[in-house]
Every structure is written in structure tokens, then in C-alpha cells.
């Protein structure tokens, strides 16, 4: 796989470049970008190409098919000049792409407004490819999707990885076989989809801490009351629960029906309570594992951060920052994880590498490749 930085400025100048970015970001109630993390990270490759005289035609998906990328274009204008084109492969997009001048940047409409994108339709991939002379994939967070703009277009154009895609792969390659001692934190839900990764992490990391809704599955499997908490279709088996490297929370934060929250031992949860986070004893239990680690991996917040339960995610971020300061390497991924730790007082640069991938990160850790990566080989 070649990165775009292997091309000289002469090879890029004046060329129309179809740049598959990942600007799939949350929008607020006013319809504007609520979190610009992916926008900011994706801008580096946009700027790199533009500064070398390429004519940058950026494409991305955004949420549901009816949503527009116009708010993303407005957010991108904080970083540099960009024109939004409300079309994908029609006459408007074709005219705009061929009228561009060196260094100019255009963002086309949400790819998923055309159902052929998710169908990986070859005709749609050909139409996208006709807009440009070079294809660059910088959308690591979408690389686990076998969609037309990810795996179809590279068949018809010279293709390269973007700067962010390169950095993600190089970093996560190391995360699959970390230096010891190592510590992994995995949150989220749907144990049935994460069981293979959990077993892989247990094999490759010194310790694995399960948190988020996955911890509810652990408590349920161990016979504890979990009240009205979110539970997966499947529960962890003895192979996982009895693994000496497996670590579960020792206390939880529960929310009562009157919305009051309190910290309890996991053995004390009542039938009408909902587990919304871990507790301080759990943070204290894993603190030595974090501060003593040479490599730390974290995907998934500890609690329902969107409901305000992010204090313990912030506490873990503080511990990680101290470990990174002492020389540990750290990778943190998943949009929810990053959103949960923002505003906690720890700067992003103190936390190691922040991955733009959520599902893509987890799938890469398990398999060592993704459809979007294979398409670039």
C-alpha cells in the first residue's frame, strides 16, 4: 500500500484527486457539527494535497441517507477555503470537478444519498472515478465497509492511502502485538459481536478491563442482579470470566427510577435500578495497571457519557496522561470514547494516539486488515 506522500509535487499539481474522507460527524439540534474531531483530523490530507496544487474533490458519507454534508462544509471552512457541491456524480458534480483550478477544494454531497454507495455498485464506482485522475482513501473509520467509494473506486484509478489512513494502520498494527506490560480497556455493548476480540485481547494484553454495557453482561453471567440495565443477547462464558488476565469492575454507579444516582458494589444492585457507569473503587483497582503499562489500548467509555456519566472516564484519562508522560504508548479510539473524555481537563496531545475509528478500529485489531485496506494493496 502506497501513501500519497510517495508522489512528488509535480505528480500531484493540476491533478483531480478524489479524496475519500470520513466526515461522518454528529450534528447538534441546530443542524451544525457538534464534534469536529474527525473534521480536524481529516483536514491534514486535504491541506497536503491542496498545498501541492492538486484539485481536491472530497467525498464522505454522513449518517442517514437523507442528511446533507452542507454543515460539514461549513465546519471545514474554519480550516481553509472549500466549496460545497450539492451533487455526487451528476452533471453539477462533473462540471464542478472539471472547472476546478490548482489547489482548490470541493466537498460533494453525502454519498449515501445514492443507494448504490452501500450496495457497492460498480456503475456508481465508475461514475465516482470519472470525476478524478487519482484516488486517495483517508477514511479509516469507514474502511471496514465494502462500499463503492471505499473498495469500488480503487479498481478504476491509481490509488493511495491518505496521511491519516497511513498513521492509523501503522499505529494499530503495533496495538495488535503490544509491548509488555500492556493494558486494554474495552467498553460498548453487544457482547456477542465482541467476544472474538475479547479473546484476542486476553491473549495479547497483560490485562483486559471490561466496562460499559459489556460489564453488565459480566455481572449477569456471574449471577448478580443488573436491574433494568442494558444486556446483550449472549453472555461471556467461563473461558473469559476465569481468565487470569480478565478484569471487571468492582463497583458501579446506578440510577434509580427517580433519576438519582449512587455508587454501589456490583452485588448490591436492585431490580429497579440501571447501571450507568463504574465507580471509584474500580478506577482505583485498575490504576496500577494503567500507570505501570508500557502500552495502553482504550475503546469504549466507562458509562453513559451522553447522560452526564463521564467522571470515571475522565479519571481514567488522567491516569493515562500520567502513563504517557512516563513513556507509555497509548491508543484511544471510538467516537464515543473521545467524546466522553473531552472537557475533562486532559489535552488530546497528552493521551497518545486518538484513532478516528470505532468499529473499524475493533475490526482491524481482530483481523489485521479491512476491506478498504485490501483495496489499496
Main features:
377 residues, alpha/beta, Rossmann fold, 2 domains, 15 helices, 16% strand
How does this structure look, described?
This protein is α/β, with parallel strands linked by helices and about 375 residues long. The protein folds into two domains: about 5-165, Phosphoglycerate kinase, N-terminal domain (Rossmann fold), CATH 3.40.50.1260; about 175-365, Phosphoglycerate kinase, N-terminal domain (Rossmann fold, 3-Layer(aba) Sandwich). The protein is built from 15 helices and 15 strands. Strands 3-4-2-1-5-6 form a six-stranded parallel beta sheet, sandwiched between helices. Strands 9-8-7-13-14-15 form a six-stranded parallel beta sheet, sandwiched between helices. A three-stranded antiparallel beta sheet has the order 11-10-12, with helices on one face. Strand 13, helix 12 (about 310-325) and strand 14 form a beta-alpha-beta unit. The N and C termini lie close together (about 5 Å).
